[in-house]
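Need a sequence for this fold. Nothing fancy.
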């Protein structure tokens, strides 16, 4: 199961018995091999008013057991440290104990793209002016992101380059070179766009080329 950091996530743990006359008496949810949440109705009361416990260090007030889709643990907001395997154990009055597992994968969005010029300076908005015949190199870099983000250059609406030259640690970089600038490059928009999941919107930064022409 995939989710995005800081969003709401639902980890299924069905408490619906196979026998309609039966009911659950205990739910125990573990992260890895450590219990992190329980719903305990062994005192004989209805499951809807059972005692709920959450690990204060792991879950805290972010978690609650809800009856959506037959039952499950809701985490809101989910954090990067929640990525793990979860084991759900449900005991009933009469039915056999039920065990299920779910693996939680989390998407961490990358940083806002930064555009860097030939001199290593961060540039924004209108850049230049450049002269006819000049060659320029621009790098787009983003930090972080899980899974590793794509960094893609567009010239107006047209794909220019979708291959990152450098992926090192937390940094992903895509570099483009525009040779022999012409009058047609005046006011052209270059956009660097990054994304790492269809669960999140892409993030972009744009610059516009300024040109100077001889009289």
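Here you go.
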């Amino acid at each position: 199961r995939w989710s995005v950091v800081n969003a709401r996530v639902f980890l299924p743990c069905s408490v619906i018995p196979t026998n309609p006359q039966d009911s659950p008496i205990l739910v125990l949810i573990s992260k890895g091999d450590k219990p992190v949440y329980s719903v305990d109705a062994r005192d004989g009361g209805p499951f809807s008013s059972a005692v709920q416990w959450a690990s204060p260090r792991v879950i805290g007030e972010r978690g609650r057991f809800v009856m959506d889709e037959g039952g499950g643990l809701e985490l809101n907001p989910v954090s990067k440290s929640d990525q793990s395997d979860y084991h759900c154990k449900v005991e009933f009055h009469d039915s056999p104990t039920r065990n299920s597992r779910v693996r939680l994968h989390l998407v961490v969005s990358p940083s806002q793209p930064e555009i860097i010029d030939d001199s290593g300076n961060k540039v924004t908005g209108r850049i230049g002016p450049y002269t006819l015949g000049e060659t320029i190199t621009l790098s787009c870099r983003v930090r972080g992101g899980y899974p590793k983000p794509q960094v893609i250059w567009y010239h107006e609406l047209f794909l220019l380059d979708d291959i990152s030259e450098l992926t090192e640690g937390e940094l992903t970089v895509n570099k483009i070179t525009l040779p022999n600038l012409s009058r047609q490059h005046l006011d052209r928009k270059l956009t660097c766009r990054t994304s790492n999941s269809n669960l999140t919107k892409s993030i972009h930064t744009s610059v516009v080329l300024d040109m100077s022409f001889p009289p």
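For context: The mean pLDDT is 96.
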